[in-house]
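ok so for the tutorial part 2 we go from a plain amino acid sequence to predicted structure tokens. step 1 is just haveing the sequence, like this:
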Amino acid sequence: MSVPAGTAADGTGPQNGTPAAARPKTRRAAVPAGRRAVTGPLRALTRLLGGRRAPGQGSTTAHDLAVRHRLLLALSALLTLSLFLSYEGVHGDANPLRTSSAPAVLSVDTALYALGRAQQDAGAAAPTSDFQRQISVAAQSLAAAAGDDVGGPAGRQALQTVAGLITVYAVKVQQAQLQPADSVLREAYLSYATSVLTDPGSGITARLRVLQRQERAAVHRQTSFGPLLWLGWSVTGLLALALAAALLETQRFLRRRFRRRYNRQLVAAVALLIVGLATCLLFTLWTLQGMAETRDLLDRPLSGPLLTDAGQHTVSSLAHTGLRAAAAGWIPIGGILLMALAETALRRHIDDYRFRPR
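step 2 — the prediction. this is what the tokens look like for a chain of 358 residues:
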């Protein structure tokens, strides 16, 4: 077999016998800037959403646009879903607290206070208007509590039982007051009435205390900011930061690649993101503050003038919660608008590169 001229049989160079493996390697040509693949923080997202272009396929602009397009739409959709669920998790309990749970606690407290005042007048020598007024207040408070749907069907049944027992209590007290001051029958009527009111197991007061604890527990559930809400709002914050970073990076990419200083749709998307998220956070903080004030107010024993003050403060603390809760319906609309802005910001450039002849 013939050996090319200037080359040794063992593969060494023509002059000095240097092995071929030790020869200097030829430097590869640098990749033009316009053809570089997506680098930096977007590399992982590029692989996830669009893969990597094989080398030697020309400009990567169309690929980079497609990756950013998918990324903006995906982040916008995820943020919309997360924000809606987190917002509803807080505001969904504010309206039941305002219209049902808090008034029910105040109604039960009012009934207990009125019955305590009535018991003080039960030993009067003759029927008094104060006793009748306190019984009337207790009955009206229980009717209001039933209207607030205290404890569901079981709670309504318990309130009906208590209302019947209050009627029995009032009748026995009136019968006792019609008897002579020192008669045995008077003492018997009063003893029976007192047992109906204060019996530890089945008395009116014991039954109302059970309802009171149930409603206060409901208030605590509705006003608590539990682990799921912390997780939801944390995910929402991370998605918002990721979307803001992606929007700004896309603006920088378009400015560098197409020599346009600003993309109006991307600027509008950033503004919508900031304003919408700030509004939702502000509404949520106001609602949480009002709910916390209501919980602290209803946790302490209330009687007399404190009941009236507590009712007024509760109404004030929970004012406008219904309006803020209704704002949840705007979150999907804002999300759709955000995705539309991201779509229109990149669609023209994507179409230009899609139909550009190679």
